[in-house]
Amino acid sequence: EAPAEEVDEDAIAGELVISMKLPFVKFTVDGKEWDNHEYTGGNKTLVIRGLGRDADHTVVLTPREGGFDPKTLTIAPAAFKKTVVKQKGKTRFIVFRAVEKLDFVKEAPPAPKDEAPKK
Questions:
Q1: String of DSSP letters for the chain
Q2: Which of 17, 16, 101, 20 minimizes the C-alpha distance to 62?
Q3: Residue 25, Cβ density class (10 Å: 0-12 exposed, 13-18 middle, ≥19 buried)
Q4: pLDDT for position 2
Q5: Which of 3, 29, 37, 101 is deepest in the core (most CB within 10 A)?
Q6: CA 100 from chain center: how many Å?
């Protein structure tokens, strides 16, 4: 059996898994569009891949459905935990994964304008 390859764990990018109750939420990472991502779990789980693990990342999530406020997450390097992933029972690889659960809050309805101020 061949010896296991040495893996430079510092070179492995992080992935962020965000579970939400809304599908296909738009997002930016550090103010930019991010191509390396996918939606899973009925399109309510967003997996963002290829994140550097040497600095904080700011992820802004904006629901496509109206009436919800955007959310901002700050992901610190320490949030990425080493995880070994098995595929087909044998091939193993390492990912550094941060997991977040997110509930979007309904925007407050605007105050009625036609009421006279109370004295």
A1: -PPPPP--GGGSPEEEEEE-SSSS-EEEETTB---SEEEETTTTEEEEEEE-SSS-EEEEEE-SSTTB--EEEEE-GGG-EEEEEEETTTEEEEEEEEEEE--PPBPPPPPPSSSPPP-
A2: 20
A3: buried
A4: 44
A5: 29
A6: 7
Hey, CA dihedral for 14, 19, 24, 29, is it positive or negative? Answer: negative
In this structure, the strands spanning 14-19 and 91-101 are parallel
* Single pTM value for the model: 0.79
| Single-letter residue type at 106 | K
Q: How far apart are CA 68 and CA 104, in angstroms?
A: 6
* First-residue to last-residue Cα distance in the chain: 85
pLDDT averaged over every residue in the chain: 86
Distance CA 66, CA 88 (A): 41
